[in-house]
Every structure is written in structure tokens, then in C-alpha cells.
UniProtKB/TrEMBL annotation:
The keyword Flavoprotein does not apply. The keyword Ribonucleoprotein does not apply. InterPro entries: PAR1 (IPR009489). Pfam families: PAR1. This is PAR1 protein. The lineage of its organism: Eukaryota, Viridiplantae, Streptophyta, Embryophyta, Tracheophyta. Keywords: Signal. Residues 1-26 form the signal peptide.
Length: 147
């Protein structure tokens, strides 16, 4: 009876430790991400990933994922969910990011929607900082009451 308890405890501790080590040792490196997962991802060092496109001499397009110098606030090891990509009207193959998106009414409508704004903190943090860099306070820009 006691041996079953000890075995269960050891198994539980082993699982917990292996999960902890995976997060620590096997974190996300932007350079290892595919073009389908790169945009809106955050590395294990809290740096945002950015998708870049290069045209080879043959005319073929090649995509690479790079680590940017932009740090995500309180987030690391994150690949954005399909739900947030859809809710926020994002494109997985986005190249870079521009404040021009904040001028597009359809994009802004999706970004400010409760489905995106309240459920996708990574996206909101990214665009909050982007808006701030051009002197705009995103919650006020979205017309949110809890400003």
C-alpha cells in the first residue's frame, strides 16, 4: 500500500520536473519556427519573432523567421493561437508590422472587439506598444470604457 503511494509520488515528481525542464531547456527559438508559426510568436527570451521574405536568384520566395529586438511584456515561449489570429483579423504570413494597420477600419474593428481585446493579450500588447510608439493610447483609440 505504502509502496504504491511512493511510486505515484515519484511518477508525479518526474512528470512535473520533466515539464519544467522542457520549458527551460527547450524553449522557442524564432529561427527554428516555420513560416506558418513565426508571426506573432514570442521566443523563450521574450523577444518577438518576425517573418522575413527573401527572393532567391531563381525567383523562388524563401521565408525565414528571425528574432527581433522587440521584447514582449510578461510573455515568453508563445505561439499565437488560431483563435486569436482569426479573432484579431491577423495573417500568419505577415511580414513585419506597421502602425498603418491601425488606420484600417476593418482591422481596428477586429482588434478592438471583445473576442480579440479581452482574449488575446499577446496581440493586444503588441499593438498597444505599436500605437504608443506613434503617440496613441490603444484603449482610448478603441473607445473602451475601462480607460
Amino acid at each position: 500500500m505504502a509502496s504504491n503511494f511512493i511510486i505515484r509520488c515519484l511518477v508525479t515528481v518526474s512528470i512535473v520536473m520533466s515539464l519544467g525542464l522542457t520549458g527551460t531547456l527547450g524553449g522557442i527559438e524564432c529561427e527554428n519556427l516555420s513560416k506558418e508559426t513565426c508571426s506573432f510568436a514570442v521566443s523563450s527570451s521574450s523577444k518577438r519573432c518576425v517573418l522575413e521574405k527573401h527572393v532567391k536568384r531563381t525567383g523562388e520566395e524563401a521565408y525565414t523567421c528571425k528574432t527581433s529586438n522587440i521584447e514582449a511584456d510578461k510573455l515568453k515561449d508563445h505561439i499565437e493561437s488560431d483563435q486569436c489570429i482569426k479573432a484579431c483579423n491577423l495573417d500568419r504570413l505577415s511580414l513585419g508590422i506597421s502602425s498603418d494597420a491601425l488606420l484600417e477600419s476593418h482591422f481596428l474593428e477586429k482588434l478592438c472587439s471583445p473576442q480579440c481585446y479581452k482574449n488575446c493579450p499577446n496581440v493586444v500588447d503588441l499593438y498597444f506598444n505599436l500605437a504608443a510608439s506613434v503617440g496613441v493610447f490603444l484603449p482610448k483609440f478603441c473607445g473602451l470604457d475601462d480607460v
